[in-house]
């Protein structure tokens, strides 16, 4: 939104410039349509106070110091299914129904814009899109994953009697594609973003006490033949390693680009705990990023998952083909948040036993 810092959460309340004019009439909302996003503008009379209340199916705008007749519209845009204005004892209530959940920092943006020359009305501009994620920068204290305790491992001795050792849990991170295989190309190049996020996850986990094996740490493929490349990646998911996670960016064909946005996590029935691991990854990434959740997927057999012998999942962290989600993927703060969510999901899997050597508690 012009003039607004993306890293700052939108204010939930405010007041229009000028002295209050009790009973001044509120005009109907003005809507602007952009690919993947709808802007709603409320022209606020001087002194009007507002309060924004995001919720499960839309946004309420509580106004005081104005008057308004009952108005409504249906099937407005893909992002705004309906809007209505209702008079209240103190002013008016504007409800914007999105049909998708909003949080305090995702699904919407808002800014109070000063009046234009020749007008006394401030403009409350509200952008609505399910692809709008939380781009608030993480504080230093938030860029930390809690310590992961060592795991027990049996080792043979000289007398062939087993002994118990404490070792760091080992996980595999697989940044998708690489080298000549760029993956999806749109607002970002998939192979670059996947590696960027994987390296951030690696650094978070190593500090927390996790041994991290990377399928690649540079822009390269593991083998020139795609099938061989995928098999070699999956082959790192062997006994002794606890978890396997492949990181990717999604894309849709241009004709369907507006339909694809958000985060999804895939699993295959290669291991009894793969679905549980995928669920933990999805839950944590959505919590930290505020991204739209496309949920868990398992209706396709994926080589890097089916070839793994340990709990394995593949996360698609956003759509490079979507005009709003693509901006998320270009934003370093979003990538920070994705990495933190992934690292926290892996930690939760390890400490709760959702691992190759655990029973899953």
UniProtKB/TrEMBL annotation:
The MurNAc-LAA domain, residue ranges: 241-347
Biased composition, class Low complexity, residue ranges: 10-26
The protein's name in its UniProt record: Cell wall hydrolase/autolysin
Xref: CDD domains: MurNAc-LAA
Gene3D superfamilies cross-referenced by the UniProt entry: Zn-dependent exopeptidases
Region Disordered, residue ranges: 1-35
UniProt entry keywords in alphabetical sequence: Hydrolase
Highest taxon of source: Bacteria
Biological process according to GO: peptidoglycan catabolic process
Any one GO CC term of the record: outer membrane-bounded periplasmic space
GO function terms (MF aspect): N-acetylmuramoyl-L-alanine amidase activity
InterPro entries: MurNAc-LAA_cat, N-acetylmuramoyl_amidase_3
């Amino acid at each position: 939104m012009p003039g607004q810092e993306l890293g700052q959460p939108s204010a939930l309340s405010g007041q229009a410039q000028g002295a209050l004019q009790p009973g001044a009439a509120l005009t109907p909302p003005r809507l602007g349509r952009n690919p993947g996003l709808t802007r709603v503008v409320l022209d606020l009379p001087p002194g009007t106070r507002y309060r924004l209340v995001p919720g499960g199916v839309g946004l309420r705008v509580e106004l005081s110091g104005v008057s308004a007749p009952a108005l409504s519209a249906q099937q407005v845009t893909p992002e705004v299914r309906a809007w209505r204005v209702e008079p209240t004892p103190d002013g008016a209530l504007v409800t914007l129904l999105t049909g998708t959940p909003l949080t305090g920092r995702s699904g919407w943006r808002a800014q109070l814009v000063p009046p234009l020359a020749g007008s006394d009305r401030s403009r409350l501009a509200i952008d609505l899109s399910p692809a709008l994620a939380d781009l608030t920068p993480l504080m230093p204290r938030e860029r930390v994953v809690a310590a992961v305790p060592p795991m027990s491992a049996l080792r043979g001795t000289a007398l062939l009697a087993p002994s118990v050792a404490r070792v760091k849990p080992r996980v595999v991170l697989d940044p998708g594609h690489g080298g000549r295989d760029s993956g999806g190309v749109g607002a970002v190049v998939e192979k670059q973003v996947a590696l960027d996020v994987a390296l951030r996850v690696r650094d978070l986990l190593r500090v927390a006490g996790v041994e991290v094996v990377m399928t690649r740490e540079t822009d390269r493929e593991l083998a020139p033949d795609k099938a061989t490349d995928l098999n070699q990646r999956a082959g790192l998911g062997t006994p002794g390693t606890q978890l396997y996670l492949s990181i990717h960016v999604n894309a849709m064909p241009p004709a369907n680009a507006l339909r694809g946005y958000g985060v999804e996590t895939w699993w295959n029935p290669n291991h009894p705990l793969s679905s549980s691991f995928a669920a933990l990854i999805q839950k944590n990434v959505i919590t930290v990023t505020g991204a739209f959740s496309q949920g868990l997927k398992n209706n396709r057999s994926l080589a890097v998952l089916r070839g793994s012998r340990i709990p394995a999942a593949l996360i698609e962290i956003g759509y490079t083909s979507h005009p709003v989600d693509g901006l998320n993927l270009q934003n370093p703060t979003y990538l920070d948040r994705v990495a933190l969510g992934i690292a926290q999901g892996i930690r939760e899997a390890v400490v709760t036993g959702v691992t190759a050597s655990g029973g899953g508690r």
